[in-house]
Design goal:
The protein is of the alpha/beta class. It has three domains: 181 residues, Aconitase, domain 3 (2-Layer Sandwich); 108 residues, no CATH class; 109 residues, 2-Layer Sandwich (Aconitase, domain 3), CATH 3.30.499. Helix content is 42%, strand content 13%. The chain is built from 18 helices and 13 strands. It has a five-stranded parallel beta sheet with strand order 11-10-9-12-13. A four-stranded parallel beta sheet has the order 7-6-5-8. The chain has a two-stranded antiparallel ribbon with strand order 1-4. Helix 8 packs across helix 12 and helix 13 packs across helix 15. The termini are far apart. The model has no long low-confidence stretch (mean pLDDT 96). GO terms for molecular function: lyase activity. Keywords: Iron, Lyase.
């Protein structure tokens, strides 16, 4: 088969089947994927991949068959990888009998699939999270690293906050890229693909909720790259833990409410600091966000509950997964509110979601951990979206501070302050 892409002698050898039929198919898939987007060559990956497909849905039979073929040929990723969260945690996220039956149907191949993941290069049993780049997890790229990731919230963080380079790849392609150690060079892997088509002028009188700001940006620019001016008035020019948490959540909302894979924040994110407004294309568009626009965005969210006046029965906080800093902050906020109101426990079943390694680190702070658990809060490592995918669970009156979860489920969005009012 003739390929349009410029290939190295070694790549041609692989595509001729000289290193086995399975490796040939893996590389061929990556090449054809790249050619679809106009890539002229492959480049070496310089960091571990992160997989978006973490769930054992039985209908993904072709994926399981492909995994078995990779395993039988002894093929695994060049470096140990991480993967998105698990779907189920009955100890901390309760389910009744009927819900468990549906979950069993939905994720019935979970155990087998996790076994396959380990055999092709999964880092360890704790490597299930959408925030693989957190220090406790350890899949932390460096600026300029070439990656092949697919999880939207991780892609936008790696590109924007860290300054690594990855496209928002299709699921399974990132695994095959990890196997062959190559990814197609196009989009965010090129200098031109990282330039901004939108200037976002933030003119609010307050720091907007990151989930709402990200939502506004995502819905306006869709898949284009925005250059955000005015946010540094509130965040400063230092990537502190609080600032990185803000950008994490803002980026996740922009990626789910639109399809943003990279943003630049003036005077703050690496490339914006270095190149400033030179990152803007000559014919860029402008979007002004002021107080009234933030209010309009919030009012535009549809209510998906069957009964709009239903009382919340469940609250998810942490989509994407919370950082250790955010776990500590939520513990402090909940504890202060309990003391202020004279309550012993929350009225609404509240679940904080974080990476397994982050939860383990948080538990080492026994005082804070006991303070949080004694309030009735549960800690889990699951993806709340996968919980909400269960049609029985989607009927519940679920509230969340995540615009990503709101977008992909029937959960109702509230700001952090509003959440604190509802759960007490």
């Amino acid at each position: 088969m003739d390929f349009k892409m410029r290939l190295t002698p070694k790549e041609i050898e692989i595509l001729e089947g000289k290193h086995g039929e399975t490796l040939k198919k893996a590389l061929k898939s990556v090449v054809l994927y790249g050619e679809t987007f106009g890539a002229e060559e492959l480049v070496d990956i310089t960091g571990p991949v992160h997989l978006v497909t973490s769930f054992g849905i039985p209908i993904l039979e072709p994926v399981f068959d492909m995994m078995e073929e990779l395993i039988s040929e002894g093929l695994l990723t060049k470096e140990k990888f991480t993967v998105d969260p698990r779907p189920i945690d009955y100890e901390n996220v309760k389910a009744n009998l009927l819900e468990k039956i549906v979950f069993k149907i939905m994720y019935g191949k979970q155990k087998e699939y996790e076994s396959q993941l380990k055999k092709v290069g999964l880092k360890d049993d704790n490597s299930f999270t959408c925030t693989c780049y957190l220090p406790e997890v350890g899949n932390i790229p460096k600026r300029g690293d070439i990656l092949s990731w697919a999880e939207s919230s991780a892609v936008v963080y790696a590109n924007s906050v860290i300054g690594a380079r990855t496209n928002r790849n299709s699921g399974i392609i990132e695994l095959l890229s990890g196997i062959v150690g190559k990814t197609p060079k196009f989009g965010f892997l090129t200098d031109g693909g990282r330039r901004a088509k939108w200037l976002i002028e933030l003119k609010t009188s307050f720091l907007p909720n990151p989930q709402v700001l990200g939502s506004a940006i995502g819905m306006k620019v869709m898949e284009d790259v925005p250059y955000i001016a005015g946010l540094d008035r509130f965040l400063g020019n230092n990537l502190s833990d609080d600032v990185k948490d803000y950008l994490k959540d803002m980026g996740a909302a922009s990626a789910s409410n639109g399809a943003v894979g990279l943003y630049h924040v003036e005077n703050l994110t690496p490339e914006a600091v270095d190149f400033k407004r030179e990152l803007l294309l000559k014919d860029y568009n402008t979007y002004i966000i002021d107080d009234s626009e933030i209010e309009r965005i919030i009012k535009s969210y549809p209510l998906m509950w069957k009964s709009k006046d239903a009382k919340p029965s469940l609250c998810f906080i942490g989509c994407p997964h919370l950082s250790l800093n955010q776990l500590k902050n939520w513990t402090e906020k909940i504890s202060k509110e309990l003391e202020k109101r004279g309550n012993k426990k929350l009225k609404v079943n509240t679940i904080l979601c974080a990476a397994p390694d982050v939860i383990e680190e948080f538990k080492k702070d026994s005082k804070n951990y006991e303070k949080l658990i004694s309030s009735g809060v549960k800690l889990t490592y699951i993806c709340p979206l996968m919980y909400m995918n269960n049609p029985l669970c989607s009927k519940k009156a679920v509230i969340t501070n995540s615009n990503k979860l709101r977008t992909y489920s029937t959960a109702r969005f509230y700001t952090d302050d509003e959440i604190l009012n509802y759960i007490f």
